[in-house]
Structure to design on (128 residues):
């Protein structure tokens, strides 16, 4: 074996090859692309799942905000509409009661003393 030859096993296809450089990990460009694309696809799949839930939550709040006046709904109404309480984009403290308000993009929900949820809309985020 020459001094600058390195025997490696390709992490993508498991084929043994002689590396042309000390930092070469894959036997060919196709294996390198396939390997990294497979990793990226897995990451995108996770993000897509979460995005789908967030968009559904936003859609539910938007529909209920328009449909119910004043925009007050029960937890069961939110659940029946497909709302998932485990996902939100950010939290803010309400100005008056210092309670946490959970936002999904421009729509927020604030739990009132009677157990119902008040749906809020952040005017600054609307249409952004």
């Amino acid at each position: 074996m020459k001094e600058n030859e390195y025997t490696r096993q390709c992490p993508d296809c498991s084929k043994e090859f002689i590396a042309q450089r000390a930092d070469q990990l894959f036997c060919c460009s196709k294996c390198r692309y396939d390997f990294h694309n497979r990793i990226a696809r897995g990451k995108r799949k996770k993000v897509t799942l979460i995005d789908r839930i967030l968009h559904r939550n936003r859609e539910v709040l938007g529909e209920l905000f328009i449909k119910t006046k004043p925009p007050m709904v029960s937890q069961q109404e939110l659940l029946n509409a497909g709302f998932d309480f485990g996902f939100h984009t950010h939290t803010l403290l309400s100005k008056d009661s210092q309670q946490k308000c959970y936002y999904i993009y421009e729509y927020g929900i604030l739990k009132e003393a009677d157990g119902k949820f008040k749906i809020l809309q952040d005017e600054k985020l609307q249409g952004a």
